[in-house]
Design goal:
Length: 140
């Protein structure tokens, strides 16, 4: 069943960075890589983006919050990775941006970038299912 903005109920879709994802768009002027994946929210699911930070298994520390967006960052070995979780009234979107700062980080990202889309989709689906279960279990 196709719903708002071409979203398919229960499916994760690759989408452009949403207009509301301002923190991540301002974090890196020219990233080497960026992507975004979205899922439709079910009734009763949390609209607070902090509830969704488990998508990244709390591996990224939160460095900013504005409106319905939470911004997280991790830097290691010359690689700056940013993630944003944006929650609006209809969907949750996981945005990623990466900047490599040297040959080691370019080599590392050259390998990881092939796995990243699969892992990003898996993480948003897993968290969506977990929060949907919590929501349905807490409903009367």
């Amino acid at each position: 069943m196709v719903t708002v903005l071409g979203m398919v109920k229960g499916k994760v879709l690759a989408v452009p960075f949403p207009e509301g994802a301002r923190l991540i768009q301002e974090a890196l002027e020219r990233p080497d890589y960026r992507d975004a994946y979205a899922m439709e929210l079910l009734p009763g699911m949390p609209r607070d983006p902090a509830a969704w930070t488990g998508i990244l298994r709390d591996a990224f520390p939160v460095v900013g919050r504005q409106g319905g967006e939470v911004l997280m960052k991790v830097s290691a070995s010359g690689l700056d990775a940013w993630a944003s979780i944006l929650v609006d009234s209809e969907r949750v979107t996981l945005c990623s941006a990466v900047k490599t700062n040297g040959w080691r980080s370019k080599a590392y990202w050259g390998v990881v970038r092939w796995v990243h889309p699969f892992m990003a989709r898996l993480m948003i689906v897993r968290t969506h299912r977990t929060l949907a279960g919590v929501t349905s279990a807490s409903s009367p």
